[in-house]
Amino acid sequence: MAEVDTVASGLIDFLNASPTAFHAVAEAKKRLKEAGFEHLSEREDWNLETGKKYFFTRNHSTIIAFAIGKRYVAGNGCHVIGAHTDSPCLKLKPISKVVKGGYLEVGVQTYGGGLWHTWFDRDLTVAGRLMIKETKDGSVSYSHKLVRVNEPIMRIPTLAIHLDRGVSEGFKVNTHNHLLPVLATSIKAELQKLAPVNGSLEFEIDNDVKKTDAKSIADNKKHHPILLQLLADQASCQPDEICDFEVQLCDTQPSNIGGVLKEFIFSGRLDNLCMSFCSLKALIDSTASGSSLDDEPGVRMVALFDHEEVGSNSAQGAGSPTMLDALSRILKAFSTSDSKFVIGLSNALLHASLAWLWVASFTLLLEKAIQRSFLVSADMAHALHPNYMDKHEENHQPKLHGGLVIKHNANQRYATNAVTSLIFREIAENHNLPIQDFVVRNDMPCGSTIGPIIASGVGIRTVDVGAPQLSMHSIREMCAVDDVRHSYEHFKAYFEEFSQLDAKISVDV
């Protein structure tokens, strides 16, 4: 039981440190550095070595980490676990200042397909990143800083039942009119000299305070000064040094292990930080010993993408070239235009001809590497709900404690096929790990994952899996402690055994 508690408690720590995708990547970076992974920059050349471990980030909301086997040569494959760092939430609008009815409210926009009614009557705060202008010795630079306000500072109150007698028949949320959190009352803020009088832009200023500059006035038009000051305090800067920000609302209730038998994890963002954590821990632990990569001919990789909840179409989403870029740069570090490319070439040949031969050779190696690679698309799955059992197909009802779920869809909403599911099942059987299957009912729409996006964009074999959970896309979700352990052990075994298992499978020969 101690091992289960260790993995689950590690997830709890990861969740509590990760209120946003930016924070999740920062926490992943910290853990990777502690495990000996070297930080790379996509803006620089990569000097890679076999037996070494690396990672890079994009936009600080996507992170890719990989360990290169000591037997790796150019053209060998990567075995990857892909997940995502983002979750449905409410994000502040570019102009968030709202004053009405004697209240200071904050304008937000919905991100992803959240269960928005669960955000009402919660103790909320904000977290995200700020872009800060820094001046030193007359030189100006810009940096991003992560911020998080730990105290509850706002709330979205529901309407009293006395004013909406029909609410018991269905709580309907107008996401534009009703999802505005209350930050403060105008009169209290006015007394603190931090809010406009009657919604105007005029401020009462003490004699010993310098006159507000143009940027501060512009910011005060866009955001409540009290909110800007709070964010600035978190970043240890002045409000007028904040050039821009990406900030979202967060629940202040911490993640925890619950249930009368301590069998559940109660938390926000389990979709999909649970799979992000399990895959990251599996990579770190599978490469922890000095000899763990001695017999590895491939590259073990974890790719945690942003923007899955909104379609993955961004520079740092799974629909971007990020995955292919990583595969290409690893391959390029181990493929050179050596003497075999120039044999038979006369001195009269142009350098362009040599370059063309190198490109052609590199392209062939990349194609080989992709076909030798494998992706586990890891995204949380729908567990059977005891109060809505008719929502599941009768022969495909994933249960909590039942292990990872292999997701199938004939219309390719999931990328699983017989070959890819076989590989994942064999690993489960070899380690006596439970495994489950899921297909959506024929009369219901099917969600999707990064699996089909990467499979179709890169051409890599893919299986879609995920740990079962309840309350998906709620501000507060739940899964089973056992399934966190099952997921971690399954992913770790995949990293350690894929190369040997894949060599036994023959399809396109």
Automatic annotation (TrEMBL):
Keyword annotations of the record: Aminopeptidase, Hydrolase, Metal-binding, Metalloprotease, Protease, Zinc
Alphabetical list of SUPFAM superfamilies matching this protein: Aminopeptidase/glucanase lid domain, Zn-dependent exopeptidases
CDD domains: M18_DAP
Segments passing through the bilayer: none
GO-annotated molecular function: aminopeptidase activity; metallopeptidase activity; zinc ion binding
Gene Ontology cellular component terms for the protein in this record: cytoplasm
Cofactor(s) the protein needs: Zn(2+)
Pfam families: Peptidase_M18
Record GO biological process: proteolysis
Family label: Belongs to the peptidase M18 family.
Name by which UniProt lists this protein: Aspartyl aminopeptidase
Organism of provenance: Acorus calamus (Sweet flag)
